[in-house]
Amino acid sequence: MKTKLCPPDSANIDECAAAIKAGGLVAFPTETVYGLGTNALLEEKVGQIFAAKGRPADNPLIVHIGSVRQLKKAAVDIPDRAYRLLRSPLMPGPLTLVLKKAPAIPYIVTGGLDTVAVRIPKNAIAKRLLTKADVPVCAPSANKSAAPSPTTAAHVLADLDGSIEYILDGGPCEIGLESTVLDLTVDPPCILREGGTPRSAIESVIGRVGVSCDTAAAAAASAPKSPGAKYKHYAPRAAVYTAEPDERAEVGRFYDRETAAGKRCVILSMTETPEGPRAEWPVGKTAADYAKRLFAYFRRADEAGYDVIIAVKPPHNADDVSEAVINRLNKAAVGRV
Question: In angstroms, rounded to a whole number, what is the distance separating the alpha carbons of residues 197 and 94?
Answer without folding.
Answer: 6
